[in-house]
Write a structure and sequence with these properties.
271 residues; alpha+beta; four-stranded antiparallel beta sheet; 11 helices; 36% helix; elongated; disordered N terminus
Amino acid sequence: MRFRTHECEGIARLPDGPSRHHLVVGYAIYYGIKTGFNDAFIIDNQTYQDLIAHDPKSREIIKPVVRGRDIRRYRPHWAGKWLIDTHNGYDNVPAVDIEEYPAVKAHLDSFYTRLARRYDKGQTPYNLRNCAYHEEFTREKLLWIELVNNGRFSYDNSGLYGEATTFLLTGESIKYLCALLNATLTHWFLEKTAPTSGTGTLRWKKAYVERLPVPKVERARELALVRLVERILANLDTRLTDSENIEEAIDRHVYRLYGLTEDEIHVISGK
């Protein structure tokens, strides 16, 4: 990507610098779970409680899930939705046998005609389609959505699953990446390199996010950003204060990581 000289020569050099690499190195990006029929497989809290009351074993295959609308900056908002995770098997884990979960089967039976017709199904109409990376949802990760003007990368280490309108990223230094990807500089960079929708909304597509140039930094500088992210997460958990000043501190750290000049920072921040 070439930028005009008056914009940001430093950013134009980022992909070629010896101390940078593209996001794809050391990380993996995946799509959210595709059920083929969310009305059957994504349930509310009351339905979850009813299924557990009828058969406590149901808890084994029902997982908390977030949708695209639940993704926020730094922390997802779980809206009390659950995924019936009748997976089709992965690694050495066999596919879920619905006969072992009678309450869940009775729930799905009320949608059976639609389940049988759907394209995205597993070995039976009750099973979800193949998902080789199923285990990744249980790991420390970032979740985000594609269509949004300002990037929303949510940190999660609680085992939330993401449905089809989300992406997830796993790998090393996840909190460090959370800071970088939510930073003003990243938004600016995506505006210059990624497409927009028909209505002009920026598209945070996998192909463009994984091409973001990420600085390789010494541990101390990485930890400085990690601690700032942890302060934001603590604020969100307690709801005691906003984090605008912390996000500004993250922006300053990120500008320094990329070696930007004051003129370049002015162009990017608009300040």
